[in-house]
Amino acid sequence: MNFSCRRRLCIIVLCIYLSTEGESRHTDSKTSRRDDSDLPTTEVNEERSSENRDEAQITGTSNYVNDLKLAHERPSESGRSIGYKNGGFPKFPMNDATYSAASSATYVRTGAERDCGQRSIFHDLEKKSLRPSGRIIGGSSVPYGAYPWMANMELKYGRETHHHCGGAIIGPHHILTAAHCLVGFKPSEFVIKVGDDHRSSIDDNEQTFEVEGWIVHPKFQEGGTYANDVAVIRLKGEQGITSSAAVSAACLPTRLTPYTHGTWCYVSGWGVTNAADYENKPDSLQAASVPLLAAEVCQGEAVLGKMQFGPGMVCAGYLQGTVDSCGGDSGGPLVCEVNGSFNVLGIVSWGSSCAKPNKPGVYTKVQYYIDWINESVENL
What we know:
- By secondary structure, this protein is of the alpha+beta class.
- The protein contains three helices and 13 strands, in the order H-E-E-E-E-E-E-E-E-E-H-E-E-E-E-H.
């Protein structure tokens, strides 16, 4: 091979080498830019998300943010002797003696927020062929923390306090209850306990609050009909309720939450366990599983009648009787599971006696008053 050929061959080899090296560098450069543009962004987002989660855990703000952002007849001293003018009785407060934010804004939690209406202690009551299972009348104690939204409203008697009504935690400073539990009393006469399953002892996560004030529905009439039996209580103190495995808020329904008859729900409280014995009051929290009943059934003349059962009410229970809420359960929540979260669909209100055939328990329909409830929370 002469010099001229060798020279041309060398030039060709050199060109091929330079071309290959250039493509390799270009490919490496593109790969490096893709990694630089993708990975850091992901890492930053993850860090920010982690920071947000940490901040929410520290401040507790995530627990009470509402994405919608809309946010009694008193008994005689001896027992059930006073009724409403239209007949029937409230599930009146229990008189044990026979004889009232860290954040600047407070929002009510709804089922859209996954941290409300959750419980870490599983408790399910048998629900077969509409047969009674756990009962408030008859007694069925529940595991501690199984109903973490339950509030115990107690009245002061000297240095002691005695169970009066139930309520539902709906936020760090707010309790939802029945209007008839509050009419005729002053905020200073109450203490509210949460995480209090056993009334005679102090439970591990028990918290006690004085009452700052409340708003009773303006159209509720003591001694009148049973309509508008709803109220919101504001607790004293800046910190409010501390959430734990045994203490947390229930969700509130939205305007679109379905009330489907046959839906199984739970009612809980410390009311009497024997309708014939008002001295028999349970020490531990009781619960019952009850199905929602259709409005047409409740309005039937053989049941409650249209004059007494209004649009702001919902009834639940067994037409054969035997299972019901009763005296001392007033104000407590009727909770139903909606999309994986427990919603307060009802407030224990009234009934014609307790656990009698064709006389199911009647509850204030929370959804019917949801705008008023949200407004009251914002104004308290």
